[in-house]
Specification:
The chain is α+β, with helices and mostly antiparallel strands. Helices cover 37% and strands 26% of the residues. Helix 3 packs across helix 8 and helix 6 packs across helix 9.
């Protein structure tokens, strides 16, 4: 390809080289090949770009890489590579601006075959942003089951956040940052370092034919496992989303539910909204149910012993309307005058349970006919009761 091709290739793929790497043999060969094909006559400057046609409006220094010059940068790289060696993508993500699901799956799969990272060295250049760095980190790793260390490297763009902490920037690069980094990648010392690591890598493989065969086959194994990890995660995400949607629908149904009572004995409670559906129970007059939906086909969806069931809507009427009307109507006469605190009172008509002894007090719930409560005190026509462990009030006229 022409030299222009390298620029286009790196413009499309530079993020990959910035955010991660495996073995040198798997990630840098293309770069080395293109750098070797560059016009050697153009490199009159000791650290000139190996791609003379690469143009940028950004002023890029030609200083050589500094080795292990910044302790805090080295510490970040050490933490990141340490997490990478064990497939700890949670820690890796915490040290970087982003880590895609694809990359997480890759690193988790890689850690099953590769580990024991050691011999870190960090080669740093000042980055395009203030207090930022572009770096190459070399290290040795072991393939599981082999004792010969293999040289590898990773390239990273490191920035500082607003609090001054370092992080690996793998997204949100401006056009100037992209151009700056591409220019650094094209400089001679970048190619020289990669070339040296590649030669050391190849020498290690040549010294152990079994290791060479294992390394050659490993890429496909890692990609296969990474794909399985990714599919499993996507499946779990779908299941979690479905569960969340179901929970949201249930919450919405509960919010829209109301209390109804049956007006007739022996009405069939059915498994679906059809007279042909299985009967799963019978009603008694006055039975109270939670209605989830009053359907247009003449049926109501209700809760029956924790299960969705159906009753003809004509046999149901709202509980709330009766409670409100009864409470606001004429008194039916109190029968609690002789009761004392600690006695049990029984609801004889559905009645509102309120936070205070007033018909304008905040409504807590509805007490239904037959329910019993402990009487705490009688207060001006109201019964102070214990309702779910808290003090509450019901009109004395509707209990006995």
């Amino acid at each position: 390809m022409a030299k222009k091709g390298f620029k286009e290739y790196m413009s499309r793929h530079y993020r990959y080289f910035i955010i991660g790497a495996l073995f040198v043999a798997l990630i840098v060969v293309l770069i080395v090949v293109w750098v070797r094909k560059s016009d050697s006559k153009s490199a009159e400057d000791e650290n000139a770009s190996t791609i003379p046609e690469l143009e940028t409006t950004v002023d890029v220094p030609k200083d050589k890489y500094e080795e292990n010059a910044y302790p805090d940068v080295n510490s970040l790289v050490s933490s990141y590579l340490g997490a990478m060696s064990t497939g700890d993508t949670v820690t890796m993500a915490s040290l970087s601006s982003s880590l895609s699901d694809d990359m997480k799956a890759f690193y988790e799969a890689q850690a099953k075959y590769v580990g024991n990272y050691s011999n870190y060295n960090v080669y740093t250049k000042k980055g395009p942003a203030e207090n930022s760095y572009f770096l190459l980190a070399t290290y040795d790793l072991l393939i599981q089951g082999y004792n010969t260390p293999l040289p590898a490297l990773i390239s990273l763009y490191v920035c500082r956040n607003d609090s001054g902490s370092l992080y690996i920037n793998s997204e949100s690069l401006s056009a100037d940052e992209e151009a700056y980094i591409l220019e650094l990648v094209a400089q001679k010392d970048f190619a020289d370092l990669i070339n040296q690591v590649e030669m050391d890598y190849n020498a290690a493989l040549e010294s152990d034919s079994a290791l060479s065969a294992a390394a050659s086959a490993l890429k496909d194994e890692i990609n296969k496992d990474a794909q399985e990890i990714l599919v499993a995660k996507q499946q779990k995400d779908l299941e979690d989303a479905a569960q969340a949607e179901a929970a949201e629908a249930a919450a919405a149904a509960a919010a829209a539910s109301s209390q109804v009572k049956c007006t007739s004995d022996n009405v069939n409670i059915r498994a679906s909204a059809s007279t042909e559906a299985e009967s799963i129970g019978k009603t008694k007059t006055g039975d109270v149910y939670t209605r989830y939906e009053k359907m247009e086909n003449g049926w109501s969806k209700i809760d029956y012993n924790g299960t969705e069931a159906y009753i003809k809507s004509e046999y149901l009427e709202p509980v709330e309307s009766e409670s409100s009307e009864s409470e606001e109507g004429e008194s039916t006469g109190s029968s609690v005058a002789n009761l004392k605190p600690g006695d049990k009172i029984t609801v004889k008509e559905n009645v509102n349970v309120r936070k205070s002894a007033s018909e304008t007090g905040e409504k807590i719930s509805t007490a239904y006919r037959g329910e019993q409560f402990e009487l705490v005190a009688l207060e001006n026509g109201w019964c102070k009761i214990k309702y779910k462990g808290e003090d509450a009030y019901v009109k004395a006229d509707y209990v006995e």
